[in-house]
Amino acid sequence: MVAAVSQNTLPKGSRRYFSLAMLILPLLEPGGYAIVELSQANDTELYGFVSAVDGIPVSDSVGTREEIREAREIFLTINSAPEHGWTCYEPPSFNGPDGRGPLPLETLTGAGKYPAEARLHPVSRGPQLIPVLLILTLLGTAWYGWQYYERLKAEKAALAEAAQKPQRNGSHHRG
């Protein structure tokens, strides 16, 4: 997933991030593409390009106007159009084939409920493993401390018993 929608863009109570491709995918049945204008970064206009064939995502990328035009042309060249033609959403400045016009980001993020498959999940399990590793370390340390204490207690008992033996032997008189 290259393009993500931030929580700041979504209404309150939403999950952290959503896949832009998975939010657009239902609009591209049975096949098509969408070009979405994303926020500007460093005075460079960025666009998201999402395409699908038979409901299966084919491409999902972010780039400049020229990069996205090239991605669209490659998609249209290598894929056969469905029986009823492509479903296309793109800004007028892209001058593509008969499109349905632009697909503003607000139309995707203004929905009250988002599909579960669009929700992004963490890939790294590192933050989730930290508490488990901490608990295992504490348990290991406690077990080692208990074993050390038991061994020390046994040694003290053995020393005390050894100290008692000479006194017992010295208390017997021969007659």
TrEMBL record:
The name of this protein is Type 4b pilus protein PilO2
Q: Which domain of life is it from?
A: Bacteria
- Transmembrane domains' residue ranges: 17-36, 129-146
Species name for this entry? Escherichia coli
Question: Which terms are listed as keywords in the entry?
Answer: Membrane, Plasmid, Transmembrane, Transmembrane helix
Entry's Pfam families?
A: PAP_PilO
